[in-house]
User: Which sequence fits this backbone?
């Protein structure tokens, strides 16, 4: 089985992952949470914790493969292995492409208009299970918007605060500011440039992580 130290580092990673997800996602999902809390206060939907618990489940699950990848990349990233830099570059290019896909646009649209999301998915929310399902649906749309950005963080092997703040700002901006779709495209351009730079010079990654 897993050694005690591994278990500790796994639970430590999952806690850090959840904190990171919350820090990056909360500003973006705040409008939906507020709307839900208002409906809950009027007794029209099940209490907020049922809805919010679904986010925790949806956000924790990607942490499992993320941890596995992180363990594999830990040493190669630390030693500056060129293939790890190229992998990070490839993930950035994939993230750039994802930012431009119709599926990303659909997810973003749901996240950008909490009221229409409510109209569409709020049907069974008076019951706890319905509320949980609704939270899970919204959590998945958020994940649809942002999974590629999370993949970028894992592939870069970075808990670099500046990078996290930049990604959080992008998530917030594309979900909440006017012209969010255009902001998403701007993000794609940055990812593509960074990805290509890393593919040409994988050593750039080492400087980011130090």
Assistant:
């Amino acid at each position: 089985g897993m050694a005690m130290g591994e278990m500790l580092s796994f639970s430590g990673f999952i806690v850090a992952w959840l904190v990171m997800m919350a820090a990056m996602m909360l500003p973006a999902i705040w409008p939906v949470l507020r709307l839900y809390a208002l409906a809950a206060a009027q007794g029209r939907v099940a209490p907020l914790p049922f809805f919010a618990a679904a986010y925790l489940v949806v956000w924790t699950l990607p942490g499992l493969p993320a941890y596995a990848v992180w363990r594999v990349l830990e040493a190669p990233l630390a030693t500056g292995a060129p293939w790890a830099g190229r992998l990070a570059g490839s993930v950035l290019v994939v993230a750039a492409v994802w930012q431009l896909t119709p599926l990303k646009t659909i997810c973003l649209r749901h996240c950008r208009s909490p009221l229409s999301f409510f109209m569409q998915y709020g049907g069974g929310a008076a019951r706890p299970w319905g509320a949980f399902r609704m939270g899970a649906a919204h959590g998945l749309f958020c994940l649809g918007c942002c999974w590629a950005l999370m993949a970028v963080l894992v592939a870069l092997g970075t808990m670099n605060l500046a990078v996290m703040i930049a990604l959080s700002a992008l998530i917030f901006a594309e979900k909440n500011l006017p012209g969010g779709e255009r902001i998403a495209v701007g993000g794609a351009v940055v990812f593509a440039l960074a990805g290509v730079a890393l593919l040409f010079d994988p050593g750039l990654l080492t400087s980011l992580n130090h």
